[in-house]
Amino acid sequence: MSNPNQLESFWMPFTANRDFKKDPRLMVSADGMYYASHDGRQILDGTAGLWCCNAGHNREPIVKAIQEAAGTLDYAPNFQMAHPTAFEFANRLTSLLPDGYEHTFFTNSGSESVDTALKIALAYHRAKGEGQRTRLIGRERGYHGVGFGGISVGGISPNRQAFGSLLPGVDHLPHTHDLERNAFTRGIPAHGAEKANALENIITLHDPSNIAAVIVEPLAGSTGVLLPPKGYLQKLREICTKHGILLIFDEVITGFGRLGSPFATDYFGVQPDIITTAKGLTNGTVPAGAVIVQDHIYDAFMNGPEQAIELFHGYTYSAHPLACAAGIATIDLYRDEGLLTRATKLSAYWENAVHALKGERNVIDIRNLGLVAGIELTPREGEPGKRAMEIFKKAYEKGALIRTTGDIIALSPPLIIEEAQIDELMGIVREAINEVY
Ligand code: PXG
Ligand code: PLP
Q1: How many CB atoms lie within 10 A of CB 210?
Q2: Which ligand has the nearest atom to the CA of 315?
Q3: Does domain 64-336 have CATH number 3.40.640.10?
Q4: Which CATH class is domain 17-55+338-435?
Q5: Per-residue pLDDT tens digits for 385-433
Q6: Which residues have a Cβ under 8 Å from the Cβ of 331 and sit 6 or more positions away?
Q7: Ligand that lies nearest to the alpha carbon of residue 219, given by its number in the listed order
Q8: 109 lines ligand 1 (CB under 6 A)
């Protein structure tokens, strides 16, 4: 017999299940910048859900588009069949990117986008007669979702340690976090571009002819907002180009306006061969992801007999009709409200507001870019992550949703946030920080 009030059946993702179920935090509705909690409070969204509701919540044009789609075409296969909105969505999406990114492969999540991108990279080299290029390079502290490919190139040890031997042939670049030299930097840190040179060492060790791809987040979000030092991404691009290695930007968080440009590739002026996206693609409404490739990648696959399948890969729900409808409406809304560049206008206010927390209890670093901020705290002796988790709970009690990872607070509000709401958010964060010892 089902019991809606028992919390046991739902094995919650990335959650301390027993702790949570003793004192649950449930969202029951949402509108604009606010959630409503099950105990009847308004909760200011400081994290755009999980970095995904960039246009804020329950936006009418998106809701309507999904409702209409659900009543028109519930599902259609996209294996040797298709439906019109899939093409429209792909056209709309690629038109947000610079010239030369004309093709997109649809998935249902960031994790699937990453695994798809890694598979495309391997198959690309094989299609070009370089099938020996099989090695993949990720980065320490990188987050690339939870598929076996993603955790293999990812660099967060708790996400890897329980899951066996993972993919073979993977190396990791050093992460770029440098508290000693860069603490309290506003925007892009000055020090650390030389960390890209580690790529040359890895490449020399294995010989460039064996390496398929390098994957990095342009700005590492999930691991606690680690920014790329000045010149770092450019260096990675140069080294990859020199050795015929594909560069993949995982833009699951940075895509769709988070930094003030449509994508991080625009923001940094560095063009990867492959871009992975998800989250903001449908404003978090219908699960969807996309892998966008430069034309030379797609073209490399289009050489065999025309009746042959070029890529043996795809998901039952690739380009699901509801996801396509949601995605098209989302892109229209981003355009109509100028949301893909709105963070540029707000970022100075945002930066000042978050850096005003310097000097508060236990704060050892503050970093920011676009509408993202990281606030790093000293960990409590022998209890890593506990201090930040207590701050998270305090903030929730006080009416704001924030995100913590280890002892870092990560903030990434919807891009519709107003200055007064930035003040509200930082006010709650300040109080919460100071109430936790
Ligand atoms: N790549 C990157 C860069 C991500 O940030 C994924 C891949 C995986 O996406 P899916 O849709 O499979 O979850 C992500 C997801 C956090 C947090 O607390 C971040 C993510 C997911 C959950 C929590 O920062 N990023
Ligand atoms: N497992 C089984 C038994 C399947 O038949 C399928 C798809 O047909 C899958 C997994 C993969 O599911 P999806 O395409 O939704 O990723």
Answers
A1: 15
A2: 2
A3: yes
A4: alpha beta
A5: 999 999 999 999 999 999 999 999 999 999 999 999 999 999 999 999 9
A6: 92, 93, 96
A7: 1
A8: yes
